[in-house]
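Researcher: Next entry in the queue.
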Amino acid sequence: MAGLMVSGTQVSYVGQYCREIPEFLGRDFGHFAKRLDLSFNLLRSLEGLSAFRSLEELILDNNLLGDDLVLPGLPHLHTLTLNKNQITDLEYLLDHLAEVTPALEYLSLLGNVACPNELVNLEKDEEDYKRYRCFVLHKLPNLKFLDAQKVTRQEREEALVRGAFMKVVKPKASTEEEEAASPEEPPQYTPLPSGSRDLTSHRGVLGKGRYFYYGRNSEGNRFIRDDQL
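Model: Structure for this entry, 229 residues:
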């Protein structure tokens, strides 16, 4: 089937512009898939994901997922990337993830309004991003990586003391922003790096810079595990 790639326990259905998770994916692969990549689609709902109870990695970059996002209970999920979606309510998302993904260690939210990154919003600065990280770690203290950076001991200590006071206020969308988020407008397709196109070696790319680059040749974010550093 066009667009479908399966390798061992890895399932990829990328760039198919689907608005919902196809039923056949859960029926045929949900019982064994541990890694699911649904990037570059038009997903607004994750209905059907409950068939993938054994998931450990879930890639949902470049979709249309918003503040009504609902994940099923995924007790084994340790990696979740939601880069370049339409998430604005950070606290709701974090509370939901704390409830349904207790094993989560790697999270990336770059490219969402909820993630105040200077490179995608010129009104934000480094201090805004630091406060965001502190609040996320307060809500999800078991994270090892957040966005493009490894979580440090200092960040953990600060989150314990000050995290509860670093709440990021949900911004109000303007009329122009609402029009720009039209459901008929598909997310811009960003080609995968050449080293990430082979499904069997699709471990991705993680930079160690202060901020993460967003460009036409950038996929958004991928994680490097501790044993790969």
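Model: The beta strands are 4-7, 10-13, 35-37, 57-59, 79-81, 106-108, 145-146, 149-150.
Researcher: Noted, moving on.
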